[in-house]
Amino acid sequence: MRIVIPGGTGQVGAVLRRALTAAGHEVAVLTRRPTRTHEIHWDGETLGPWAEAIDGSDAVVNLAGRSVSCRYDLVNLRAMLASRVRSARLVGEAIAAAAKPPRVWLQMSTATVYAHRFDEANDEATGLIGGNEAGVPDYWAFSVHIARYWERAQERAATPETRKLALRTAMVMSPDRGGVFDVLLRLARLGLGGPVAGGAQYVSWIHDEDFARAVAFLIEREDLAGPVNLASPNPLPQREFMRELRRAWGVPLGLPATKWMAELGAFAMRSDTELLLKSRRVVPGRLLEAGFAFDRPRWPEAAADLAERVRRR
User: Fold this and answer.
1) In a domain, 198, yes or no
2) Which candidate, 212, 33, 65, places its Cα nearest to that of 153?
3) CA distance 186 to 45
4) What's the structural domain count of the chain?
5) In this structure, are residues 207 and 293 in contact, taking their beta carbons and an 8 Å threshold?
6) What is the DSSP secondary structure assignment for residue 5, as one 8-state letter?
7) Cα–Cα distance between 25 and 56 in angstroms, integer?
8) Is residue 210 part of a domain?
9) For residue 4, what pLDDT is reported?
10) Is the full-model pTM beyond 0.90?
11) Residue 180: inside a domain
12) Contact between residue 30 and residue 40 where contact means Cβ atoms under 8 Å apart
């Protein structure tokens, strides 16, 4: 197949590009700074010659959008919203204008769309959309707002010949440098990988190989459309998540952190505590119903595999 990945130069894009290329597919990446073979320039804002790559392709997987690894001030939140909505609309325009549109458009979304909760897990059918929870920072609602407008941009695109899926994706764990697993492992190796603010908040995650396999599965399954959760079926509390990560690397202890300590650490790393403190208890209801089988559905085995791959890199 010919598969186009707008915004495919980040960590998740690298995971997907490697897997799809290894499977024999022809992959083109749309990027603002092309440096490699099969990378095509686009600005993420206007139609241009890059749209020719979409015309006649089999699938588009749009990953474009400003990184969430930043301080969640109003400027950055607005930039995240604008970059995601604008790029989704632009991809929709390119598909609508294509003489031979792709048969499927997978649009990146986020598991952050679901509510901060500790009780029931959020699947696509019964999950609670966030934004109205009591006792959480007001700006957390803006992250949900971003996710909903991101998905709405795809829903409203006039692409009747193209099946559309919104990938509500949990944290993709890969051994690549600079990815979320790399950051968490570094904290654990420094002895800082203990529970944060008690550690009861749930962590939703997906192993990189299962993520790539799930995307390929969704491209092939013509009976699936709409939102799909890309997450392991076994989210777990942050204190257990970090304990298993430490065990995978052989680190006996991890210092706990209070909420204010987490705030200081996030400020120093130019990140935000929502990524640590929001309880994302998300499960892949539709994937499981469709018969998708996870190779690494449990975190201890997934963490051990990722740690071994870091050692080999």
Assistant:
1) yes
2) 65
3) 36
4) 1
5) no
6) E
7) 14
8) yes
9) 98
10) yes
11) yes
12) yes
